[in-house]
Write a structure and sequence with these properties.
single chain; Aspartate Aminotransferase, domain 2; 2 domains; Aspartate Aminotransferase, domain 1; binds (2S)-2-hydroxybutanedioic acid; alpha/beta
Amino acid sequence: MFQSLQALPPDPILGLTVAFKADSNPNKIDLGMGVYKDELGNTPIMKAVKQAEKIILQSQDSKTYVGPTGSADYNEAIAKLILGQNLLKGLGKRRVTMQTPGGCGGLRLAAEFISKANSEATVWVSDPTWANHKPLIGSAGLKFKSYPYYDHESHNVKFDNMLETLQQIPQGDLVLLHGCCHNPSGADLSPEQWTAVRDVALEQGFNVFIDLAYQGMGAGLEEDVHGVRLLAESLPELIIVSSCSKNFGLYRERTGAITLICNSDETCATASTLLAGAARANYSMPPDHGAAIVELIMNTPELRSIWDEELREIRDRINKLRSQFVQKLKDAKIARDFSFIENEKGMFSFLGVNAHQIKTLIEKYSIYLVNSSRINVASINDSNIDYLTSSLAEVLAE
Ligand code: LMR
């Protein structure tokens, strides 16, 4: 039976890491996968995380099951981080949050939940969107369409076009938005644009589904959820999937959550049973370690302030790198304006180079980037910025 199988092509993001590791060029640069790297090119464990791990190691006295919905205290801590205390109070039992195996596990669960609620629903994704959105959500059998988002010419959000499309989306469909730090473009909606999206969602009656993978990596923990909170306080229903991979650096611990806002307490109680049932049927229960760390950090003031400070340093470094890179590109006298990179948020930006140039960057210079020209800005450092800039100048001059 297995002989009939056809091999899949390598994953567009994960496949790059494999190729990068196999490359023996000492100057190689990995601008591919979205993991934060420090000045030395390492992805360190955050100090707050290390301290929490030590406490857990000492105090944990059982490895018994926690349950399909994960830790109740973690769920509350995540809900508070995303929505804030006041909004949480106001929503009361119209809101439920459930621990998931990373943001991906949350997206997959959300897709299954949506298909239970309306198997005919179409999920509208931004053009472009994260390469794994379609496989993850599509695996639950949902249909896709896309709405215009990023203008590769002006390097801005094509907001008028986006709005025109949203104005055609019917009730029963869902619009997937990136909460902040849009992946892959780095171009986020402004507060006014979030308000306009909220208004059209209310008018049209479609549902909104937010992927929040980078809270705290853009402008700040509160600033990055401006749009999420605006929608949470005004829409009758909302799905938010969040991740602790980047802002807690817990990548391999698979720590995420799904939050639902429902139009009544009763619907929320029903919806919770479906989420728990989907978890049980898929993986039974989420892994505990990452969530236990986050729960302890969020509920211990000293650890919380260490984490806040570390996250601020990460965010500041990424934003500084954006400015430095733009300056280096200017200094290299490349006849192209890259200043947009400085205004974008989070780890990613498009370099705006074509497929042939990407191939040359990878094959001739060992500079690895995603085939859309997305780069991870956090991979730039003092030791590689000159090689990166000069290689790019040469490739663009060819
Ligand atoms: C990325 O976009 O590079 C990250 O979210 C890692 C991944 O799983 O693709």
